[in-house]
């Protein structure tokens, strides 16, 4: 059998995934809990936040929360599609987003990163080039 470049690339990717699988299973996995789900009030309670409701509509519910001196936005969505459409347009303005199933927390990087230990979810970063130094991204960029 002749080995071609695509076959080499595929076998290399498989080897990398196998090594990554062997190396995982430590502190990192324990650091991110299972992702919370539920109403805005439930997610806010998990985040230890008393939500200050800003928007209470059928498609999106949004509140301001405080974590120490920092504020962040917590939003829940009626549908996965509505959440993704909202995220796609919101990320044009920069910022940091902790994204769960039908919910998002938006704020300073350190604030939403610390929320991840309570809420789970995945971190996403907005496009800094659209609003460098703007209100969401505090003028710094890591990456």
Can you write the helix and strand succession as a string? Answer: HHHEEEHEEHE
Mean pLDDT: 76
Shape: globular
Strand order within the widest beta sheet? 1-2-3-5-4-6
The major β-sheet equals: 6 strands, antiparallel
Distance between the termini: 42 Å
Fraction of residues in H or I helices: 25-40%
Query: Are there runs of 5+ residues with pLDDT below 50, and where?
Result: 3-29, 129-143
Q: How many strand units?
A: 6
Strand percentage? 15-25%
Which structural class do you get from the secondary structure elements? alpha+beta
What count of helical segments does DSSP give?
Answer: 5
Radius of gyration: 19 Å
Walk me through what this model shows.
With about 140 residues, this protein is of the alpha+beta class. About 35% of the residues lie in helices and about 25% in strands.
Question: Which descriptors would you attach to this protein?
Answer:
6-stranded antiparallel sheet
Summarize the structure.
The protein is α+β, with helices and mostly antiparallel strands. The chain is built from five helices and six strands.
């Amino acid at each position: 059998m002749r080995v071609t470049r695509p076959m080499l690339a595929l076998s290399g990717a498989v080897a990398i995934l196998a090594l990554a699988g062997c190396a995982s299973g430590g502190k990192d996995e324990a650091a991110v809990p299972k992702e919370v789900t539920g109403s805005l009030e439930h997610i806010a309670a998990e985040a230890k936040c008393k939500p200050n409701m800003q928007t209470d509509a059928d498609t999106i519910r949004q509140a301001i929360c405080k974590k120490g001196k920092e504020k962040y936005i917590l939003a829940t969505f009626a549908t996965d599609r509505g959440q993704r459409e909202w995220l796609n347009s919101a990320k044009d303005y920069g910022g940091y987003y902790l994204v769960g199933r039908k919910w998002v927390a938006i704020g300073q990087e350190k604030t939403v990163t610390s929320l991840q230990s309570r809420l789970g979810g995945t971190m996403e970063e907005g496009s800094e080039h659209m609003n460098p130094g703007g209100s969401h991204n505090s003028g710094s960029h890591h990456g």
